[in-house]
């Protein structure tokens, strides 16, 4: 899919989330802007506490009461008849957090899976119960056709019956690769392994055919071989359901494998955004470069792993200027600690928030090559 | 499961024997026995021949036997359903308890219903609206409820009802129904009296239950499954009741089993004494003070019996509501 024909599903513009806590105000998300396109995967990467999960929760409108959200989050609803026209633009940030509008979107259009598969299911209910609960809320069966008008089929919808919901639950469990699904549908969470639980969570999320799946570190709690299986599964299901994924992780290997486009976050700020190949081949922001530099390579002999100098600053006492300057290898005294960098497009579709690219930026032949490669890959 | 229950019943029987023996010994520990008190009382009234009849009484009640023999006589009859004779009333203990058991059960059930019907909704409200004005008010009242002893509340209620409102709230029946056979009018009269001790019991019991419910629920709200239930698009109300309360209520069921069953006999004894209720509690206190040992021992063993039954029932209920504790 070329960039011009990409079809936006959720757009986030200048998102800020502030928490007023006893010790001051925490800017959990401080100016994030990105688009999620239909059928594509957006990766969000950053270390713990950089605002990745809060961004996801803001899209779900599930920020705790104390949090203040500003900015625009828009969801573009398509008509279900297949004509593909946008019938509704919903400002998610302005919906009532327990209102009908957002509840229809949550789970129905935008589903979410979490980091903790161990505790994401209510322990006293079976795997099937959770899927059936979601199906009853969001899935409808087309009943008899009540007439066609101007080429459109108008069909009556009816709620799913108990037996149908159970069938769907078994079918979903089978699709996510749970063996013996007819029996497993009645298993309680504690009777399933960690990988199986995350599969069930995916089954719950996908049972309603959402447009977007937000996966908040879905494989962090799993071991590496299970992680690979879960990633394969997500990709496979994404293809069959034409679903977008917003994939949140701190794992660079995982994100390289799954994302089309990557947003890098640091201390609540979006510091770089580009397509995956450009981020990995030609990172612009020193933080991204440092992150990539810390990946050990097979075959390379090193005494010590590369690390990023210094500590993550306290959210109550952020450094002046660019928040990354105390740890930055390219720190320019008198500039980085004074001026807050603007978010600038430093190459085609490649955005970075860094004073290195203030005003003018060198278009290296290397960058050009990467860009050509990226376009070719598209 | 069958084996589990049989094993538990077996342990319970051993426990009952130990408790019955220990309590029997403890009750007879103070110097003298029931008869010494009785005779002192009779002589104080001027009955000179009393001391001469002591030996007759001793023999009649088996008090001339050594303690172990007394215990053996009592317990071997006990298992056959004969709980011995009350010295105080000179009637079988079984008969005395039987008369009052219905009212004790009725009172504790009413109290329990009041308590749960008030405490659970308030606890849930308090947790859902944490730190709101409503929560602060409920919390304040709950702490007052925990702080005020039931008997003091009973005295206050008596004062208000009798002195100010001129209502008859003492006991469980009005004078004219006290010895009347059961009839609709008598049941109605009972209802008119029953709510007073039930409410007092509920106020003191509710307070703790509200706090426990609130605390558990707040803990549960922080769990990942609550967030993921909301992310499925469930209504807040459904998330709270179907997912959070369902999980948070477990400790309350444990409390219910371990407190409510023995509470039938020894729930709010002081309140029952203050209000002069014809329940088992006051009977028990009196038996303890007068060393009416078969009566006291029987009630104590029954309390322990109910406690053990309560524990077993709790375990079974827990296994039923929470799949994680089910035995394979």
Q: Point out poorly predicted stretches of chain B.
A: none
Side by side, the strands of the main sheet of chain A go: 6-9-10-3-11-12-14-13
SSE topology string of chain B: HHHHEEHHHHHHHHHH
Helix content of chain B: over 70%
- Report the end-to-end length of chain A measured between terminal Cα atoms: 6 Å
Give the helix proportion of chain A (percent range): 25-40%
Number of helices of chain A: 11
Instruction: Please give the number of β-strands of chain B.
Output: 2
- Compute the gyration radius of chain B: what is it? 24 Å
Strand content of chain B: under 5%
Radius of gyration of chain A: 22 Å
Determine the oligomeric state from the structure: heterodimer
Number of domains as seen in the coordinates of chain A:
2
Principal-axis shape of chain B equals globular
Q: By CATH's scheme, which homologous superfamily of the largest domain in chain A applies?
A: P-loop containing nucleotide triphosphate hydrolases
Mean of all residue-level pLDDT scores of chain A: 85
Structural class of chain B: mainly alpha
Strand arrangement in the largest pleated sheet of chain B: 1-2
CATH domain class of the largest domain in chain A: Alpha Beta
3D architecture notes:
The complex is a heterodimer of chains A (378) and B (328). Chain A has 378 residues and is α/β, with parallel strands linked by helices. Chain A folds into two domains: 3-266, 3-Layer(aba) Sandwich (Rossmann fold); 288-377, no CATH class. Chain A has eleven helices and 14 strands. Chain A has an eight-stranded mixed beta sheet with strand order 6-9-10-3-11-12-14-13, with helices on both faces. In chain A, strands 2-1-4-5 form a four-stranded antiparallel beta sheet, covered by helices on one side. In chain A, helix 3 (127-138) packs across helix 4 (162-175). Chain A is globular and about 70 Å long. The N and C termini of chain A lie close together (6 Å). The model of chain A is unreliable at 360-367 (pLDDT under 50). By secondary structure, chain B is an all-alpha fold. Chain B has two domains: 2-92, no CATH class; 101-325, MetI-like (MetI-like fold, Orthogonal Bundle), CATH 1.10.3720.10. Helices cover 76% and strands 1% of the residues of chain B. In chain B, strands 1-2 form a two-stranded antiparallel sheet. In chain B, strand 1 (85-86) and strand 2 (91-92) form a beta hairpin. In chain B, helix 2 packs antiparallel against helix 3 (50-61) and helix 5 (93-128) packs across helix 8. Chain B is globular, with a radius of gyration of 24 Å. The termini of chain B are close together. The mean pLDDT of chain B is 85.
């Amino acid at each position: 899919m070329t960039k011009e024909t990409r079809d936006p599903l959720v757009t986030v513009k200048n998102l800020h989330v502030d928490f007023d806590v006893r010790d001051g105000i925490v800017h959990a998300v401080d100016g994030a802007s990105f688009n999620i396109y239909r059928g594509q995967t957006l990766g969000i990467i950053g270390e713990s506490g950089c605002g990745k999960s809060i961004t996801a929760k803001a899209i779900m409108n599930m920020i705790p009461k104390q949090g203040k959200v500003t900015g625009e989050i828009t969801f573009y609803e398509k008509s279900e008849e297949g004509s593909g026209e946008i019938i509704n633009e919903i400002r998610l940030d302005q919906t009532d957090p327990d209102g009908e509008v957002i509840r229809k979107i949550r789970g129905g259009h935008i589903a979410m899976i979490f980091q903790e598969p161990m505790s994401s299911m209510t322990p006293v209910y079976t795997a099937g119960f959770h899927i059936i609960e979601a199906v009853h809320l969001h899935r409808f069966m087309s009943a008899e056709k009540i007439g066609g008008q101007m080429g459109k089929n108008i069909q009556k919808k009816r709620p799913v019956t108990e037996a149908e919901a159970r069938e769907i639950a078994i079918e979903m469990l089978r699709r996510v690769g749970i063996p013996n699904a007819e029996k497993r549908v009645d298993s309680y969470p504690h009777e399933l392994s960690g990988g199986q639980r995350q599969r069930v969570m995916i089954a719950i999320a996908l049972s309603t055919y959402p447009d977007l799946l937000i996966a908040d570190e879905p494989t962090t709690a799993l071991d590496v071989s299970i992680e690979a299986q879960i990633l394969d599964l997500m990709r496979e299901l994404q293809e069959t359901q034409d679903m977008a994924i917003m994939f949140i992780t701190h794992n660079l290997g995982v994100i390289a494998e799954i994302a089309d486009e990557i947003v890098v976050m640091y201390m609540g700020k979006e510091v770089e955004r580009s397509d995956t190949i450009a981020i990995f081949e030609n990172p612009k922001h020193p933080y991204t470069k440092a992150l990539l530099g810390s990946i050990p390579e097979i075959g390379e002999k090193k005494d010590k792993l590369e690390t990023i100098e210094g500590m993550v600053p306290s959210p109550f006492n952020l450094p002046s200027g660019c928040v990354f300057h105390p740890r930055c290898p390219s720190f320019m005294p008198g500039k980085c600690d004074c001026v807050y960098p603007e978010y600038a497009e430093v190459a085609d579709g490649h955005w970075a928030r860094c004073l290195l690219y203030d005003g003018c930026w060198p278009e290296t032949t290397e960058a050009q090559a990467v860009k050509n490669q990226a376009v070719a890959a598209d | 499961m069958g084996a589990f229950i049989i094993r538990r019943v077996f342990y319970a029987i051993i426990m009952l024997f130990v408790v019955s023996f220990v309590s029997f010994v403890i009750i007879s520990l103070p110097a003298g026995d029931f008869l010494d008190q009785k005779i002192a009382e009779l002589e104080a009234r001027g009955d000179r021949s009393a001391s001469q009849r002591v030996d007759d009484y001793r023999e009649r009640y088996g008090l001339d036997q050594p303690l172990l023999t007394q215990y053996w006589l009592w317990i071997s009859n006990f298992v056959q359903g004969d709980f011995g004779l009350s010295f105080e009333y000179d009637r079988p203990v079984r008969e005395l308890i039987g008369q009052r058991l219905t009212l004790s059960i009725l009172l504790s059930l009413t109290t329990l219903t009041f308590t749960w019907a008030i405490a659970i909704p308030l606890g849930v409200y308090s947790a859902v609206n944490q730190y709101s004005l409503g929560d602060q008010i409920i919390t304040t009242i709950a702490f007052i409820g925990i702080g005020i002893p039931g008997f003091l509340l009973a005295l206050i209620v008596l004062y208000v009802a009798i002195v100010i409102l001129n209502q008859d709230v003492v006991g469980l029946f009005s004078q004219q129904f006290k010895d009347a056979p059961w009839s609709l009018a008598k049941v109605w009269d009972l209802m008119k009296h029953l709510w007073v001790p039930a409410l007092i019991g509920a106020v003191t019991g509710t307070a703790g239950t509200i706090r426990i419910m609130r605390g558990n629920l707040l803990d549960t709200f922080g769990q990942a499954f609550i967030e993921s239930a909301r992310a499925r698009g469930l209504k807040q109300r459904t998330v709270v009741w179907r997912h959070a309360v369902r999980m948070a209520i477990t400790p309350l069921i444990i409390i219910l089993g371990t407190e409510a069953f023995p509470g039938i006999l020894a729930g709010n004894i002081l309140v029952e004494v203050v209000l002069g209720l014809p329940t088992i509690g006051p009977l028990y206190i009196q038996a303890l003070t007068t060393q009416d040992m078969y009566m006291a021992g029987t009630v104590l063993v029954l309390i322990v019996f109910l406690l053990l039954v309560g524990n077993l029932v709790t375990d079974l209920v827990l296994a039923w509501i929470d799949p994680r504790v089910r035995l394979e």
